[in-house]
Specification:
Layout: H1 7-21, H2 23-33, H3 39-71, H4 75-95, H5 107-121, H6 124-136, H7 141-207
Helix pairs in contact: 1-6, 1-7, 2-7, 3-5, 3-6, 3-7, 4-5, 4-7, 6-7
Amino acid sequence: MNDIMDLRLFTEVFITLFVIMDPPGTVPIFLGLTSAMGAKQRNQAARTAILVAFGVIVSFAVFGQQILNYMGISLPALKASGGLLLLLVAMELLTGKMEEPTPSGNKGVNVALVPLGTPLLAGPGAIVATMVFVQRADGSAADWVAIAAGVVAVHLTLFLAMRFANVIHRVLGDSGTILVTRIAGLLLAAIAVQLVADAVTAFVQMAG
């Protein structure tokens, strides 16, 4: 089996990305961001978000370092920008703006792309971790298969977690979902502040 896929590397990739992308922790945030949607729209948003996240992760795995080098963007800058974007979304969740209907009638599109697809799922942490695994690979087919399988497995787990969110929504009802939305906003704000703090620490270390 190790000739086809490095099981140890697969396990490492899966566990690392699982911890960073946090499928169980995504459920309340997903519910909050899609609280104004019906079940069908929520499922569509889940599919779109997973496809976007997968596309971003794969793109950075293959071309990430070249893209950052070409544009002169440092990893701390990527973290800081992702943190600021998530902080704006967290404020909307906490103030209830996410529950207001959009005039376009296309409720799921923007939320599924940003912030769900990126930077919530395919955020700086997941991007950097994937780039590190690619750089560590020795170029063998078994390593590439292990990394690809690990990335796919995590995204399948994320999709299942968000599909399960419909069941949670039915159990909680509208009032429970609003409560979860506020809690999700608080958690998302904490994640955003941590990203910005990590970026500031990295900038200070680079300056020193």
